[in-house]
Amino acid sequence: MTSQFSQSLILRLWRLSFRQRCLLVVALFFLSSATLGVRLLPFRLMVVGLGELGHDPQEPLNDKQLSVARNMAWALNAVARRLPWMATCLMQALACQLWLRWHKVPATVYLGVASGQPEAEGGGLFDAHAWLRCGDHILTGGQEMNRFKPIACFGSHWD
Question: Where in the sequence is the domain holding 55, given as residue range(s)?
């Protein structure tokens, strides 16, 4: 069964355009970089890559920016599902934010929390989630974002 999966994956990769394959390679680079950042750096240093705390650009995207953002989201999602490690929502949002900043496309990473079930010892648990909004579009983490209350946002912009 594994060989069938590998052959199927190779066949699907072969059918992609050269540009799409390049997007997947770049997505792998950014997701790997974000993974290293999340795992190795203290949070206060890692958030430098997220953008300016509290800045939430509400700028509408032009057609070129929207196309870039959608292509990035496609590639990041495709790569994240197939990595040998789990690419968390924070890793995906950080990777997308860095990639968008490289193309000077404004975006905002949101960090949110939701109450979980209380522990038996009286302490409370909480779930955390990160998602990225670019213009009016949620590029990463959109499936679960409605369960979470944003507690911080980090936006990118260029003056």
Answer: 19-155
